[in-house]
Amino acid sequence: MSAMQDSAGLFPIRTVSDITGVNSVTLRAWERRYGLIKPLRTDKGHRRYTKNGNETIQHILDLIDEGIPISRVRAVIEQSRDTTVAAQSPDEIWEPHIEGIISAITQFDENGVERIYNEVLSLYPVDVVTRKLILPLLQKLGNRWASGEGSVAEEHFFGVYLRNKLGARFHHRQKFNNGPKIVAACLPGELHEVGLLLFALAAHERGFQIVLLGANMPIEEIPHVVHKTGADAVALSGSVGQPDNALFEQVHNLATATEVPVFIGGRTAIEYSEQFKQQHAIVAGDDLVAGLKLIRNTLSKSQ
């Protein structure tokens, strides 16, 4: 019997959340609002999930990725329809949420942003919300500013809101992970730490331990942190403009001094991937899920 199961071979909700990446609030919403999953109950009323229940959750996640809105997943499962017929485009599912938040941002209405964001988080896993809502929303806000349709104040308003929300989630996270330890920081000059916080939360959801150093981190101080914490890797995030030669040299020195893998993520990493690779850094790109898989695979091979 796995240590994650009880004496009856059933999984508690915390374990199911760890396995599937769907937080317990969302699992309860899927059960109560949509009848998608039906866990067993102990004598004290605690939820317990079977292996088949875990497989059902994964099936739900697959349907969501294929474009099935959560409100229609049960019908698709029960009727065994071709999911391509029932699927909607991402725009049909997520665009109303994105536009609703943008409308609230233009009014500097924090309660309006909060209402939509919390509603979506209650129905979809964090990874899905990040990929389908937050990242496209940030891109759209950037485009609005660049075209003159939006303002810097709007971007700052939402940036502060999101940073506070993500920071609070990170601060109040369960802290008993025992996976590989990552020192995570923004590149020097990078003042926007939302991407780093999204990475840190996604990493924590997958069992990593995170030492979070935040924005505009001097690279020369990171080896000391790695030594003190016994970290297994360093992850740096950046979306700033063209790096100068000094930064590449600092990354090279970091990779040499720490003797642990150094990963670079974000737009800067993609645009200057060859230069970073020459400094013995590993380019993780800007896809959080793929980047974390790369980190885990790399660390597994080095053990």
Explain this structure.
By secondary structure, this protein is of the alpha/beta class. Helix content is 60%, strand content 11%. Strand 2 and strand 3 form a beta hairpin. The two termini are 26 Å apart. The model has no long low-confidence stretch (mean pLDDT 86).
Record the SSE blueprint:
Blueprint: E1 11-12, H1 13-20, H2 24-34, E2 40-41, E3 47-49, H3 51-65, H4 70-79, H5 83-86, H6 90-106, H7 110-123, H8 126-147, H9 152-171, E4 181-186, H10 194-205, E5 209-214, H11 222-229, E6 233-237, H12 245-258, E7 262-265, H13 267-271, H14 273-278, E8 282-285, H15 288-302
Parallel strand pairs: 4-5, 4-6, 6-7, 7-8
Antiparallel strand pairs: 1-3, 2-3
Helix pairs in contact: 6-7, 6-8, 9-10
Rg, Å, rounded: 21 Å
Shape: globular
The ordered string of helix (H) and strand (E) elements is EHHEEHHHHHHHEHEHEHEHHEH
Number of separate helices:
15
- Span between termini: 26 Å
Low-confidence segments, given as residue ranges, are none
Strand tally is 8
Query: How do the strands line up in the largest sheet?
Result: 5-4-6-7-8
Residue share in β-strands: 5-15%
Helix content: 55-70%
Average pLDDT value?
86
Based on secondary structure, the structural category is alpha/beta
User: What's the main sheet like?
Assistant: 5 strands, parallel
Key words describing this protein structure:
15 helices; three-stranded antiparallel beta sheet; 303 residues; 11% strand; 8 strands; alpha/beta
